[in-house]
Structure formats: structure tokens, C-alpha cells
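Dear H.,

Thanks for agreeing to be a second pair of eyes. The structure we're designing against is below in C-alpha cell form, covering all 270 positions.
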């Protein structure tokens, strides 16, 4: 499908170039027309690129919970890009450092404690700015699929929702539900629609998060404008108005669910 889209893009791009030349011969437009056509062609290829990576990021005007996870850091009025790196040396294997890609400054620290014991199987997320614990993801051991409860401001504080892997789906999919929205059932058949749905290629770290309106609010990828020097690096782009900390927390939780697959792929690449 991607190959067809690219071929179409190349064909139409050539068609735009030909037609612009034809217009210059027949209609003799002013000199600014060429730059206009070039701009249209660039916009076209940009749109095709967005199609291949899950669509354009759509600015958000509200969140499905009371307030952002961090009043200072969660939400921006512009697209934010973050670099996520899994720590090479970790006692738990679930530790990540997250930086703001615009200036390389540290943004979040994710520290795991995956001991597979009740109340001990969790990931704690702190800001690098003031070491504030903003989120705890508590993995539920007795669940049909991998599920993490999301707590605002640390364990025992306010539970705002949960992340769970969809039990019945054609491809791997994770849903984020909000607390207090009603519904029941383990298969998702009797639950309200999720606030967010995450789908794509989780092994290659190429997936998107969409809201209940099917708007793309975040993208995760291994490539792009940022070139990483090791396998355990990837980038996360977050739409304006979206809670970046929720996105990054979900990305790290999903990353851990595919940790073994990532290790196998890394060995094959060596």
C-alpha cells in the first residue's frame, strides 16, 4: 500500500511539473507562478508523508479528564517532539530517559519496578525539571490482556484511567479508557468507546495514537528529522493541546510489552 502511495505521489508530482510547464508556454504567467506550483507540489508530498505516518497531527482544544497531568509541562500550543531512550544499564529493564528534541533538554525520567508482585509491578514517571512524580502506571496482574492503571500524581492518588491491550483485534491495538465513564466486560464489547486508541507496528516502533474522533494526536517512529545512533532510541511527536506526559507514559508501557521482540530484532540486525 505504501509503495502504491509513493508511486502515485511521484506520478502526480511529475504531472504537476509538466502542467506547470505547459501553463507557462500557453498562458505566459508572471514569474511568481513557478514558485506557487513548487509550493503546491511540496505541500502535496507533505500530505502524502502524513498519510504514510498516520495522518496530520490535529490540535486539541480539550482533554477527556479534568486537567493535564502536569500544569506546567503537559500541554503546548505547538507540535512537540521528544526523544525516548531506554537506559542501557538498568536494574529493572524498564527505565527510560526522555528529552525535548528541540533543545536536547531532559524532560522526563521513567523508572520501572517490574517485580511481578501485587502493588510492585509499576512504572514511575518524574519530571526532570523538579523531580515531581506526575504519573504512576500500575500493571494489573489479574487481567485478560496487559493492562496498566494510570494514577495522577503518584500511586494512591487519583486514578484517571487505564491502558489495556485489545483482546480481539486484527492487529495489536491498545486502548486508553477514562475512569468513571461506565461500561464493563473484558473483551471491549460492553465498554464505552476508548478515549484514545493506539495502533500500528509496535515492534518497529511505528504507531499512532488517535482520539475518539479519529484525530491523530501523537505519532511514534524510529526515523524522521531526528537521527538516532542506537536501536533503543525513537521519537514521539505530540499534537498541540494534547497531554504529552500521557502520550509518553503510554509509549513506554507499550514499549515494555514488546521488549522481548525488540531484543530479538536487535540481535538480527547485528
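And this is the sequence the design step returned. I haven't edited it by hand at all.
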Amino acid at each position: 500500500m505504501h509503495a502504491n502511495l509513493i508511486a502515485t505521489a511521484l506520478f502526480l508530482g511529475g504531472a504537476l511539473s509538466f502542467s506547470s510547464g505547459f501553463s507557462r508556454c500557453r498562458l505566459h504567467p508572471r514569474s511568481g507562478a513557478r514558485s506557487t506550483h513548487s509550493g503546491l507540489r511540496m505541500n502535496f508530498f507533505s500530505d502524502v508523508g502524513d498519510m504514510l505516518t498516520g495522518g496530520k497531527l490535529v490540535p486539541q482544544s480539550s482533554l477527556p479528564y479534568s486537567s493535564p497531568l502536569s500544569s506546567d509541562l503537559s500541554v503546548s500550543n505547538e507540535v512537540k517532539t521528544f526523544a525516548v531512550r531506554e537506559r542501557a544499564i538498568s536494574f529493572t529493564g524498564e527505565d527510560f530517559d526522555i528529552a525535548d528534541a528541540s533543545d536536547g533538554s531532559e524532560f522526563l525520567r521513567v523508572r520501572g519496578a517490574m517485580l511481578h508482585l501485587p502493588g510492585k509491578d509499576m512504572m514511575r514517571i518524574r519530571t526532570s525539571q523538579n523531580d515531581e512524580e506526575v504519573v504512576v502506571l500500575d500493571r494489573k496482574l489479574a487481567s485478560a490482556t496487559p493492562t496498566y492503571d494510570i494514577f495522577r500524581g503518584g500511586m494512591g492518588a487519583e486514578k484517571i484511567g487505564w491502558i489495556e491491550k485489545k483482546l480481539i483485534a486484527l492487529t495489536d491495538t491498545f486502548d486508553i479508557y477514562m475512569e468513571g465513564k461506565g461500561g464493563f466486560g473484558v473483551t471491549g464489547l460492553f465498554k464505552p468507546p476508548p478515549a484514545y486508541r493506539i495502533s500500528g507496528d509496535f515492534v518497529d516502533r511505528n504507531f499512532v495514537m488517535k482520539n475518539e474522533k479519529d484525530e491523530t494526536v501523537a505519532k511514534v517512529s524510529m526515523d524522521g528529522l531526528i537521527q538516532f545512533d542506537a536501536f533503543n532510541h525513537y521519537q514521539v511527536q505530540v499534537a498541540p493541546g494534547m497531554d504529552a506526559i500521557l502520550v509518553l507514559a503510554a509509549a513506554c508501557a507499550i514499549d515494555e510489552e514488546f521488549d522481548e521482540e525488540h531484543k530479538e530484532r536487535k540481535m538480527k540486525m547485528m
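Two observations from my side: The two ends are 29 Å apart (CA to CA). The helical segments are 2-27, 32-52, 244-257, 259-269.

Warmly,
E.
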